[in-house]
Structure formats: structure tokens, C-alpha cells
Amino acid sequence: MTTERELEKGIHLDLARQETYAGYLHLDRLLDSQKPRSPQHDEMLFIIQHQTSELWMKLMLHELDRALECVKRDELAATFKIFARVAHIQRMLFEQWAVLETMTPSEYLTFRDALGKSSGFQSYQYRALEFMLGNKDANLLLPHRDSPEIHAWLKARLEQPSLYDEFLRFLHRKGHPVPEDHVNRDFTRAYVKSEAVVKLFKTVYEHPEVNWVAYEMAEKLVDVEERFQLWRFRHMKTVHRIIGHKMGTGGSSGVTFLQRALGLTFFPELWDVRTELELPQK
User: Fold this and answer.
1) In whole angstroms, what is the distance from residue 150 CA to residue 144 CA?
2) Residue 227 CB neighbour total at 10 angstroms
């Protein structure tokens, strides 16, 4: 064992006119983006927690956009590796709430006023994720009316079919009995579940050997929603732990508002079909 490590001769040390790690990652801008508005020590944790969440959400959107395009091209098998990556991104988003939970209510109160009316409710990337997964509501564009580029970007996502919509359209193209009003509909509106679609998925789940790609895709979507709900739950519990039942900085009821979000579902038939399944007849 040794306490020193000699530098290898091949390591590049003269970088005056070369691309560098810091330059490639634009670390000057990235690390200068934490601007606490109070002298309180714990505000830095709060800022970095939310900035890293936004970075992970950016990557998650990047991946799900690719998955959406694959489904539109009938390349469902190509999405499975994408969903494996998304699973790890969601795990990172879930686990990092544990870091914020090291902050006590007293510590948070020392800088809470510095937030003004800013709130996670205003995260346009989070909203884009919900639109991608099917939680459509035009009212959710309202906080972004004063940011024309962001508003237009979100509006375009509101108007496009969700990942679930595209999956149902895929099934329709393959001859499965998806109701026409679920294939061509106003995609800005919330999805309304259909007993016909439950019946369709009952067939898929009862005969996975002949519906393998659809069966696997259905399970991948259930995975995404379950992890999303766990993320929502962890968020709610973290807020409860830190502010109790105080009103949120963005004007919501806080914990109560977050609890109601737990009742929202993206892919209702994929959950309902589980109740309908029976053992095959021998």
C-alpha cells in the first residue's frame, strides 16, 4: 500500500488550447447557477435539490420523447431499453428526497420567505412529464402565460397524444379492438377510461404468448406509473415533514394538494384489468 500515486506520463496536462472537462460541461455556468437569497446555510441544499431534479427530469423527457417516437413507428421492442434507463432516473428522483429530509422545519423557516411565490407547481418540465404520461389539463398552462416560449412548448405537448394514447393507436393499427373515439380524440382533454380497452388488455394478459410485445409494453407503463406515484408520495411526505399543513409558497393547500395528486392515474385500464383476470381454464 502507498499514500501517493504517480501521474501516468500519458495524462494530458497542457490544456491551454484544448477542450476540457469543465468547458465541455459548461461548469462555469452550472456551478454559478446557485444564487441563495438569504445568508442561511440550508438554502444551498434547497436550491441544489431542485436544480438536480430539473436535470433528471430533462433527461427523463429526453428518453420518453424517444420512446414515443419508437411507438409511433411500431418499434415497441426498442422502447424497452429506454424504459430501463427511465427506471433508474426515477429512482434517482425518488432517492434524493432523502437528502432534503435532512433539513429540519426550523432550518427551512429561516429562508422560506426568500422563495416568495415560487413553487414546484410552476415546474414546466414536471408539467411536460405529466402531459407525456396523460395527465392533460389546459388550466395547467396558466402559470406560464407570461413566458411565451415555455407556454408554446407546453401547449404543443398538451396537444400531442400521450405515450398511452400512442400505445392504444399502435394496438389499433395491429387489429386490436380499440374504440375509435380513443384513437382519434381531443388529446388536450383528460383521458377517459373504457371498458372495451379493459377487455382488450384482459385478452393481452390472458394470452401473453401471442401478444408478447403489447404485454411487455403494458408492464413497462405500469412500472413507470408506479414509480411516478412513489415519487409523488415521497414528495408529499417530505413536505409534510418539513412544513406540516402550512399553505404552499405557490398558494396551494400544501400537503392536502399533494395528497389529492396521489389519486390521479395515467393508465387506468392497465390497473383495472388486474381485477378482471382469472386463471385460464384447464
Assistant:
1) 7
2) 17
C-alpha cell at 230: 412513489
Q: Could you tell me the CA-to-CA distances from 93 to 138, 185, 259 in Å, in that order?
A: 26, 33, 18
Q: Can you give the length of the chain in residues?
A: 282
Instruction: For the full predicted model, state whether its pTM sits above 0.90.
Output: yes
Supply angle C-alpha 142, 162, 203, rounded to 5.
Answer: 145
Give per-residue pLDDT as tens, 101-136: 999 999 999 999 999 999 999 999 999 999 999 999
**φ/ψ (deg, to 5) at 281:** -70, 135
Cβ count near 186 (within 10 Å): 9
Which residues, 6 or more positions from 221, have their beta carbon under 8 angstroms from its beta carbon?
163, 164, 167, 266, 267, 270
Separation between Cα atoms, residue 111 and residue 269, nearest integer Å: 44
| Cell numbers standing for residue 265 | 392515474
Q: What is the rounded CA–CA span in Å between residue 253 and residue 256? A: 6
The tens digit of pLDDT for each residue in 33-60 reads: 999 999 999 999 999 999 999 999 999 9
Separation CA 39–CA 226 (nearest Å): 39
